[in-house]
Fold this protein.
Amino acid sequence: MKIRKTIMETLSPEFQVRHLSLDDIADLTQLLIANDIATFGESNLTEERVRANWQSSHAHLETDSWGVFTPDGKLVAAAEVDNQAYTLFLLFAGIHPDYNGRGIGTYLLHQMEQWIIDHMHLAPKHSRIISSPTTSDKNKAAQQLFEHEGYSIIRRFWNMEIEMHEPPVLPQWAEGITVRTFVRGQDDRAVFEMIEGSFQDHWGHIPQNFESWTQDRLNNPHHDPTLWFLAYEGSHIIGGALCSYTKKPERGRVNNLGVLRPWRHKGIGMALLLHAFNEFYRRGTHIVELGVDSQNLTGAVRLYERAGMYVTRENIAYNKEMRAGVEVAQNMGS
């Protein structure tokens, strides 16, 4: 596919565009909440969660984001490129529902594509480069925009949750398997290697480095080691459920649930999930959610359904090849 080398576009003079900063997080949260309410009728976003997402090691707001403002300073649209090793670029954008249909989405998509083009030289030589935006299955305007701009649907992701009205079933552990919580300074490297090993065959996985992972996960101000549950066989970590909690709205989240391949199909994933459910319920948190690739090859969707979880939202991931080459991200062509 031929990609334009230079994109020169402007918005209507009524709007002003600049890069965002952490000072814009409160306004950004309100924008995203308005977007959610227009799309889903509700929102569970919080400023706490938005700030945590935009403080990751991948986020460089001063160069990789755009905000669209009215003359009186109201933030009406925002976008960000999440750079994954300069080979996979995840695109995120939100537009206030009162400002749809004014060309803002097209403008922001082109700005992000131009950013990718300008940074291609930093990718590993001969590597394939992919632009990948995601949108809700309910956002028909965004879907039409992506298709018009040469994007193809590559994947569908689900948000699943469970609302527990009574104590959940207790986990049943395979013989020789024990569970405990994470200990900082002792388990750091082993948990990182377990997560990398568990997810290496998942679609779109790009290997992380330990330093970035530590910054994103362990140095995150909302990291709670008492919600990281680790499964052991002997002295070896063979799986884990890495969870978090938000107060408003009150809910738990399973951020990662992984089991190393030699220990799969032994009920360890289900036991970890039920262990997390029981701990959240004990603490008075009755809603637990997670995100999953609907085409996951490890049987994760079936496991979550058996545990009583159900789909609450669907997001569609699109791909466009910006440069042909050798695949770096796992299974991105399928």
Q: What stands out?
A: The chain has two domains: 16-156+316-323, 166-285.
